[in-house]
Write a structure and sequence with these properties.
By secondary structure, this protein is of the alpha+beta class. It folds into two domains: 182 residues, Ribosomal Protein S5, domain 2 (2-Layer Sandwich); 137 residues, GHMP kinase, C-terminal domain (Alpha-Beta Plaits, 2-Layer Sandwich). It is built from eleven helices and twelve strands. Strands 1, 2, 3, 4, 5, 6, 7 and 12 form an eight-stranded mixed sheet that branches. Strands 9-10-8-11 form a four-stranded antiparallel sheet. Strand 9 and strand 10 form a beta hairpin. Helix 7 crosses helix 8.
Amino acid sequence: MIITRTPLRISFLGGGSDFPAFYEEQEGLVLGATIQKYIYINVNEKFDQDVRVSYSKAEIVENSKLIKHDIARQVLLDYDIQNHFEISSMSDVPSNGTGMGSSSSYCAGLLKAVHYYKTGKILEDKILAEKTCQLEIEKLGKPIGKQDQYFAVYGGLISIRFSKKEISVKRINCKTKTYDALQKNLFLVYTGINRSADDILSVQEKNTRTNAQTKEAIGKIVDMAKLLEKDILEDNLSNFGALLDEAWKLKKKYAENISNPKIDDLYLFGKKNGASGGKLLGAGGGGFILFYVSESEQERFLNNMNAFKVLPVRFSHTGSEIIFKQ
């Protein structure tokens, strides 16, 4: 039995610049952090010959080729595991449509577990991130960028730079006081909407290739991400909320259906009750809104947002890891 724990992520700025359509022409940059909300993957050799995959549903099939869960099926086929095997997963928050990279966290955690099961070796972070991207984007054809996979594997408060030549990860080493203040000032508010991001991301990717306005908006957000990274390293959080707010306005130009009246109303309600800014996480259409609320406004914010599911943010220090093996 092998169990992995892989964190979910919140991105601050730079989403969209992790698509090749953008970073093959100009440098992309995504700034964000993983949080102490995890996906747990348990893999185990099964006594009988069936394959069992348990997630929000349970599948029992005779051969891995028959598995409907596309990531689980592809991982087992890649490692030539046909039967006598079981995969189960659990998530600290809803794992579909939350905007926190759950699909890539699942994929990275499963790859890490199955690779260790087959070889007795732990994949290096860079190789695991590349394999996760390859499986999701190239093999399964998912219309996604490459930030989620790197957040899941590396973990922590990081910036990820994307270029035609390479993808590099940098840890944001600010003062402890700044680090603590940042996570204490961030709150996740659940919109109550679960959605599939694929349609939105497909349009976004197409617009990034063909629409100059979309590419310009992404470029502006990358510049803001560079500024925010500099501010954090200089222990300055005074512009954090305003930068998120401006980026959210730009992000809504990426594609239709990124927002909707319910999301817009919730976002405005949060700002009216003390948040200086925020953004919808992930592709759009639902999931969680990330709000930045200074300490002096937090009591008012929490009192008035009590009709919604509000989660405080605590950063995780590690990415995907094996927490049990036998």
